[in-house]
Amino acid sequence: MKESNEVQITSFDPNENSFTPSKLFTNFYDKEYTYKYAGEQTVGGKKVDVIHLAPTNKSKQYSKVELMIDKANSVVAGGKMYEKNGNVYAYTVSGYTPNAAMTDNMFVFNAKKYPKVEVVDLR
Hints:
Layout: E1 6-9, H1 29-32, E2 33-43, E3 46-55, E4 62-70, E5 76-83, E6 88-92, E7 118-121
Parallel strand pairs: 1-7
Antiparallel strand pairs: 2-3, 3-4, 4-5, 5-6
């Protein structure tokens, strides 16, 4: 949370039915959402198709997801998540590296690198 200089650490629960990056690359949308084409926009100099997703499970914490699909290469370019409490989270995908080699350390927040950041551990 850049604006409050805070990092929140949580445990991943695959049964939580949350919106995860891995779901972006599967056919999750036709099982858990209704979806509608919302037109074309230009975002960051790229032409994108905008898709609005609404969760079929109304108990989810968000009311709408807006995906932007890059028209040039048909990959997710970003999007927004609209929570029921009014929060809006915007995501930008700056690049893709298929089948990249990754270590476990890439997924661990190192507080020593960011001494002025407040760490809130929610595990």
